[in-house]
Each structure stands twice: as C-alpha cells, then as structure tokens.
Amino acid sequence: GASRGIGREGPSLFDGVDLHALAAQVSTPCHAYSANAIRERIAGLQSAFQGLDHRICYAVKANSNVAILQLMAHHGVGADIVSLGELNRALLAGIPAEHIVFSGVGKTTEEIASALAVGVWRFNVESLDELQLLQEVAQRHGVCARAAARINPDVDARTHEKISTGKSENKFGVSIDEARRWFANAGSMSNVLLDGLHAHIGSQILELEPFREALTRVEAFRRELVDAGHPIASVDIGGGLGVCYRKGVDHPIPAAEYAGLVRVVFAEFQGTLVLEPGRYLVAEAGILLTRVIRVKPGVDRSFLVVDAAMNDLLRPSLYEAWHEIVPLVGGDREPARYDVVGPVCETGDTFARGRAMARCEAGDLLSIGSTGAYGASMASTYNSRPLAAEVLLDDGRYAVIRRRQTMAEMIAGEQLPQVWNET
Ligand code: LLP
Questions:
Q1: Measured between alpha carbons, how far is residue 344 from residues 170, 199, 229, 315 in Å?
Q2: Computed from CA positions of residues 353, 359, 365, 371, in that sequence, does the dihedral angle turn out positive or negative?
Q3: Ligand 1 atom at minimal distance to the Cα of residue 202
Q4: Measured from the CB, is residue 238 less than 6 Å from ligand 1?
Q5: What is the crossing angle of helices 255-265 and 35-48, to 10°?
Q6: What's the gap in Å between 99 CA and the centre of ligand 1?
Q7: Interacting residues of 109 by C-beta distance below 8 A, sequence separation 6+
Q8: How does pLDDT run across 90-138, given as a tens digit for each residue?
Q9: CB-CB neighbours of 268 under 10 Å
Q10: pLDDT band, residue 166 (cuts 50/70/90)
C-alpha cells in the first residue's frame, strides 16, 4: 500500500535537501545533483591549474542537462562536444562558441558545417579523411578552421576496456607517425590552421602513470613539431580523471597531483592547455533515488526489486560498475544481503549482487551513489519506461531541471503508417 515504508526514518540531507520529502514530491526514480558539489569540483580544478594558461572544456556527454551546462558556463567552463545535439545544448546553456572544442571520430559534413557556422574554437581531428573534409567544408564557407591532431599515444590507461581509448587498437586518434605527415603537409591546406595537439587515453583513470606516459609522448612530439617549424598554440590533454565509486577501494588522483604532473611535463610549453574533464566534475555530485517495489525471495538469495532500472543507470549492466547503494532508513534495521535489481526484463538489469545493506521492505527509499556522470546522459526508454526526472539541489532548495517524461512524450513521433512512400 501507499503508506508502506513511510515512518521512522530520520532526515537524509543532500545539499541541504531532505531526500524523503524530495522523493515524495518528484517521485522515483529521480536523478538528483548537488550544485555545491559541482561548484566545489570546478573550483578545485581551477585552483589546481591556477597560473597555467589553461581552459577547462567540460565533456558534455557526462551529463548534458542544460542546467548543468549553465552551471559550467557561470563558472567560465567551456565544453567538449561530440555531436550537433551537444553543440546545441552547450550554446543554449550560454557556453560561448569560442570555448567549445569538437571531438569524435565520426564528424559528418553537416556537423562540421554547423560547428564552423557558429564558430567553435577548434576541431580535435581524428583521421586524415576528417582533416580533408574539414578543409573542404571550411573552404566552401570561406572560413579558416582551427584544428588539433588527436594523437593515439598507444598507452594502457589501466581502466575498463570499454572506456580505454589510448591504445593503438582503439578507434581513436592517429599515430604520431601519421600526425607528423599531417603537419608536414599542413601548408597545403588554405582553410585549416593545424596548430594543436590532443590526446585522451580513457576514462575513470585512477593512476598518474598512464597520464605521465601519454602526456610525455605528446610533449616530446610537440617539441619535435616546433623544431620543424610548426608552432603549437594549444595542447588538449583530454579528460579521464577517475572518481570514487567505492569508498576505501577507489583512490582518485588528487587534482593538485594531476596538475603538478602537467606543470612538470609542459614546463616549456607556452600555449594554452585544454582540459576535458567530464566524470570528475559531476559524478560524485549525483545520486539516483529509487524506491523498493518489493523484496522477492529467491532459492538462495533475496532480490530487492527497485523502481530504477538499467534504462535509468546503465553503468552496472554495461561495465559491471560498482555503485554504492544506501537504504535511507533508520539505524534500527538488521543487516541483510540482496541482489538489487530493476524491473527490466533482462538478467543484466542488476545494480548489485549479494550486496550487504540494511534490511529493506517495500516502499523504502534508496540512494545509488556517484551517478552524476554517465547516468541520465546514457538513459533510454527501454521497456517503454519514461525518462526519469532530474533535479538540481542547492543549499536546501531544489529545482526540477528535467521533468519526468510523459507517456505521450515517450511515443511522440511514432505513428501508424498513413502514407506509403515509393523510393
Ligand atoms: N574527452 C574525450 C575525447 C572523451 O572521449 C571523453 C569521454 C572525455 C573527454 C571525458 O572523459 P571523463 O573525464 O569523463 O573520463 N560511459 C562511460 C564513460 C565513457 C567516456 C567516453 N569519453 C562510463 O560510464 O564509465
């Protein structure tokens, strides 16, 4: 019944907001983000890089809600985009085009033309074909495109294989040998100014060593280019800084240590350093609120069936990612162990297996931790489940920054065949 589970739990505050009241008002599942936690991350990174000529371009893919992007814009953070959709969002949020870098292996003619028309700062180019297309489109538009060559430094980021990008077998970037040829021929391009380097070796990186290896290779190549008469105005060191999903297990690199490495490696570089953090700025600032639908006893285990599912948070299903799950209940519950699962009809719709936590009952509210990055942005409507609401919390107040999708919105655009066309 509706009253089950409402009772003796104490207040659970996140950025000063009572999560029980919040869940009652916006209902579950719901993504909640702390504005103060995001501001702290921005400020922390900015102060670590203070004194260095740098620009932070937030990787929009991590959390692309326009309210989050507006928060970035307010703090002078630019954007790293990979599609026209992300470009639109960034501009809508007030991020100036000249603070936007465009990455990705599959930029189309249309995307390049649109990005040139609004005047994005630079293109991180990932193939010779793309470089030639950029020249062609820029010439047609009578403009000069600024470009950086994305280097694949062939280093192992020692993270999950699905989010490793800096090995030569990965689709990203080009070898230093290929990039060397690009620069040698750059003079023949009338409408592309190739004066930057870019490298991004992967995501959720928890060790400094892979960064050191990759950045050292990039910097050595930069010096070689400068000596060969190719000035380099910017070096984009990508994103990838890991965060804490599991207390006591994940030990993220402190921003100051990362910045310290960058200062040493690029001590002789006089241009602008670009950073593309995504996860680092938003992951730990987000939680996913979900309610227990029922506890289902199995043969040898108990299933906690919750109202969030893999369509709301894909990371556990896709990467076997570990997210903290905290029942927001009083301290008087006995310990228990559950497989925490969603209602979607796949075995992979599992948030945790055999997880120790307080005993739960139907109606209990749970908080799934560190979901601010690659949570809502990877959501789908699989099993025809509407997209969850998103709320921004700020010092005891909250604003709905995405209302729960309605059934009508979910099927908008679909229609029964009315006209049969011939091709
Ligand atoms: N720059 C480029 C070119 C990227 O491809 C990415 C992420 C970033 C920056 C930002 O990386 P971050 O700072 O967030 O690590 N869905 C996966 C993560 C995919 C990352 C894709 N590229 C996950 O949930 O773990």
A1: 32, 38, 58, 15
A2: negative
A3: 15
A4: yes
A5: 30
A6: 19
A7: 133, 137
A8: 999 999 999 999 999 999 999 999 999 999 999 999 999 999 999 999 9
A9: 9
A10: confident
Domains within the chain, CATH numbers bracketed: 13-33+284-403 (2.40.37.10), 35-281 (3.20.20.10)
Residue 299 and residue 367 in contact, taking contact as beta carbons nearer than 8 Å: no
Calculate the CA dihedral of residues 380, 382, 385, 390 and round it to 10 degrees.
-20
3-class DSSP state of 173: coil
Q: What are phi and psi of 358, to 5 degrees?
A: -65, 150
Amino acid, res. 22: L
Structure token digits, residue 39? 């501001």
Strands 397-402 and 30-34: unpaired
Ligand 1 pocket residue status of 83, Cβ below 6 Å: no
Q: Give, in order, the Cα–Cα distances in Å from 376 to each of 148, 152, 264.
A: 30, 29, 37
Model confidence over 192-218: pLDDT tens digits?
999 999 999 999 999 999 999 999 999
- Do 201 and 164 form a contact (C-beta atoms < 8 A)? yes
The amino acid present at 110, given as its one-letter code, is E
Q: How far is the CA of 402 from the centre of ligand 1 (A)?
A: 23
CA of 204 to the centre of ligand 1 (A): 8
CA distance 219 to 260: 15
Residue type, 67: A
pTM confidence score? 0.96
Question: What was the pLDDT predicted at 11?
Answer: 64
Q: Please state, in angstroms and rounded to a whole number, the distance separating the CA atoms of residues 159 and 206.
A: 8
Tokens representing residue 204 in the block: 């959720």
Active-site residues: which are they? 345
For residue 274 the two structure tokens come to 């670009």
For the residues 258-283, what does the mean pLDDT come to? 98
Say what angle helices 109-118 and 84-92 make with each other, to 10 degrees.
20
Determine the angle formed by the axes of helices 66-74 and 35-48, rounding to 10 degrees: 40
> Ligand 1 within 6 A of 276 CB?
yes
Angle, helices 208-227 vs 176-184, to 10°: value is 30
- Which residues have a Cβ under 8 Å from the Cβ of 172 and sit 6 or more positions away? 105, 126, 150, 152, 165, 166, 200
* CA–CA distance, 289 with 367 (Å, rounded to integer): 5
Q: Return the best residue to mutate from 77, 83, 203 for the ligand 1 pocket (most ligand atoms within 8 A of CB).
A: 203
Is 163 near ligand 1, meaning CB less than 6 Å away?
yes
Residues 351 and 339: their CA atoms lie apart, in Å, by: 8
